[in-house]
Amino acid sequence: MHFAVVLAFCLSLISRSLQASLPSFTDVLSSQTNLSSFSDVLNKTYPDLLTRIETSTSPITILAPSNAAFAKTIYYSIIGPAFSNNDVGAIKAILDYHVVEGNHPSTSLLPTFQYFPTWLTNTTFTNVTDGQRVGGVMQSGKEMFWVSGQSNRSPGIVMDIAFQGGTVHIIDSLLIPPSSFPATAELFSTAAEPYQLTSFLGATYLSSNGTVSPIAALLNETSDITIFAPNNVAMESVASSLTSLSLSNGSSSFSDLLNYHIILKGGPLYSTSFPTNSTTLELETLNGTPITISFSSNSFFVNSARILTSDLLLANGVMHVLDNVLSPGSTGEKPNPSLATQVPVLSTGAPGGFNVSQAPFTSSLPNAVITGVTASPTGGSYGGGGTATTTGAASTGTGVPKKNGGVRTAALNVAWLIIALVIIYFIV
Ligand SMILES: *[C@@H]1O[C@H](CO)[C@@H](O)[C@H](O)[C@H]1NC(C)=O
Ligand SMILES: *[C@@H]1O[C@H](CO)[C@@H](O)[C@H](O)[C@H]1NC(C)=O
Ligand SMILES: *[C@@H]1O[C@H](CO)[C@@H](O)[C@H](O)[C@H]1NC(C)=O
Ligand SMILES: *[C@@H]1O[C@H](CO)[C@@H](O)[C@H](O)[C@H]1NC(C)=O
Ligand SMILES: *[C@@H]1O[C@H](CO)[C@@H](O)[C@H](O)[C@H]1NC(C)=O
Ligand SMILES: *[C@@H]1O[C@H](CO)[C@@H](O)[C@H](O)[C@H]1NC(C)=O
Ligand SMILES: *[C@@H]1O[C@H](CO)[C@@H](O)[C@H](O)[C@H]1NC(C)=O
Ligand SMILES: *[C@@H]1O[C@H](CO)[C@@H](O)[C@H](O)[C@H]1NC(C)=O
Ligand SMILES: *[C@@H]1O[C@H](CO)[C@@H](O)[C@H](O)[C@H]1NC(C)=O
Fold first, then answer.
1. How remote is the CA of residue 19 from the centroid of ligand 5, in Å?
2. Domain assignment present for 424
């Protein structure tokens, strides 16, 4: 009886002492020399955010950009202009994006991406319920990456600095808040032509009377959207079938086909909600007809189309790139995973009709000249290189991140408390 009471008391002491033995977030900022820029910007311009982090009652993970990360902001779209124009609101949104809900030490990350909500909720920048997501992964059991907008990958260079509110990981480039569907699709202009998304993007602007199609506005302004976007080679191979569809409203029309690529309910649907075994998942599209998601040979399929690149984060949801155009008239098609490219479900027209230089609908783009992005100095992290569905693309080549944190102090405290517990037990 006595022992139980003493044990409970001591356990509560241990847990409190462990908590108290951990540094505060401000302690971490001042003890890590590579965080002086982050510390400065929070302290000088965003003291409210600093206070919110310090007083958070729910566990959080801070992806703390290193000094080197702040030094190279100029090379990145969105964050470059925000910092060079000293746009206080945009920088606030960028910093909010670096606070992840929940405690995510390296040991909790998986070899496949998980998508965690962040504190980026300002609807000027994002329109995703529960906060914009950031993807986290541990590759080869030791390389930590965080993926943000524009497929930008930020490596973790110092992992697992425990603090009172959760965990800090130091990352070597800033996270980029995801952009709109058009801006994200245009980034694929840096991919080889057949893999660009300009044809599907152009198709969303197509209208019968010269005004902006309601679909373009819908993709831009609806929260929690999931878009399955066929790439140019997919659009081109069935170009004649697509251009022969009626532009007027109604079933079997062009808008009917586009809507079959859009999910509004229950999203955004990241690949983490797709099956990874022999079960299938039916999702209701905007067109009303369901699509079927399945998994085979390490790839996700939508009906018979393979997902080539999954989980491109959008300001208002997520996009997955397909190797084929879906058709609401062919819902029962099954994939053949042994084929590198799935057989189109729409007619490809005359034999040899595929012509790589004839992407349909690109002339419907409001700005026919697609703007590229400034490449990062380390290169290679943007756009449509084709992130494998489940394994993630190759790392951008940084060393193995370091383990860190107040583990030693905490262990010492536990040792002292155990000694105290033994002494108290004998006294009682
Ligand atoms: C934050 O700024 C205040 C003055 O505004 C200063 O007293 C304090 O030391 C600074 N803290 C850090 C961590 O830089
Ligand atoms: C600071 O960051 C640089 C790279 O940005 C790295 O080479 C260096 O080892 C880091 N220093 C510490 C103390 O982590
Ligand atoms: C959202 O961002 C805009 C633009 O920077 C800013 O004016 C507004 O105050 C922000 N809203 C909130 C709730 O922070
Ligand atoms: C153009 O067509 C769209 C539907 O495609 C319709 O919503 C819009 O009102 C039309 N505009 C004009 C000026 O007719
Ligand atoms: C998409 O939204 C942005 C920002 O609100 C706006 O500038 C742009 O014109 C919109 N595009 C369409 C097609 O609605
Ligand atoms: C965010 O999404 C909601 C619901 O779809 C929509 O009503 C609203 O206009 C969107 N906000 C912005 C800024 O696009
Ligand atoms: C088709 O008509 C429906 C209402 O009947 C309307 O909500 C939708 O925006 C229209 N779509 C197009 C592409 O005109
Ligand atoms: C497939 O995976 C789901 C989710 O993990 C699980 O609930 C289900 O039982 C699995 N089904 C089979 C047939 O293994
Ligand atoms: C492909 O399209 C281009 C541009 O329209 C045209 O010049 C070329 O002759 C076509 N090639 C074939 C093999 O049809």
1. 47
2. no
Residue 344 · residue 237 · CB < 8 Å? yes
Residues 188 and 162 in one domain: no
Q: For 265-274, write each residue's pLDDT tens digit.
A: 998 999 999 9
- Tell whether ligand 5 has an atom less than 6 A from the beta carbon of residue 217: yes
Q: How many domains does the chain have?
A: 2
> What band does 428 get if pLDDT is binned at 50, 70 and 90?
low
Going by alpha carbons, the residue nearest to atom 12 of ligand 1 is 43
Which residue CA neighbors atom 6 of ligand 5 most closely? 220
95 and 244, same domain (yes or no): no
Treating both helix axes as pointing N-terminal to C-terminal, what angle do 2-21 and 407-427 enclose, rounded to 10 degrees? 160
Query: What are 231-286's pLDDT values in tens digits?
Result: 988 888 888 888 877 776 666 688 889 999 999 999 899 999 999 999 999 999 99
Quick one: 60 and 137 in the same domain? Answer: yes
Whether 399 and 331 share a structural domain: no
| Ligand 7 atom showing the smallest separation from residue 218 Cα | 9
Say if residue 259 is in the same domain as residue 309: yes
* Contact 366 CB / ligand 5 (< 6 Å): no
Distance of CA 404 to the CA centre of its chain: 26
Residue range of the domain that includes 33? 23-178+378-405
Helix (H, G, I), strand (E, B), or coil: what is residue 93? Answer: helix
Q: Report CA(246)–ligand 4 centroid distance (Å).
A: 15
**CA of 378 relative to ligand 2 center, distance in Å:** 16
Given a contact cutoff of 8 angstroms between Cβ atoms, the answer to whether 49 and 42 are in contact is yes
Whole-prediction pTM: 0.81
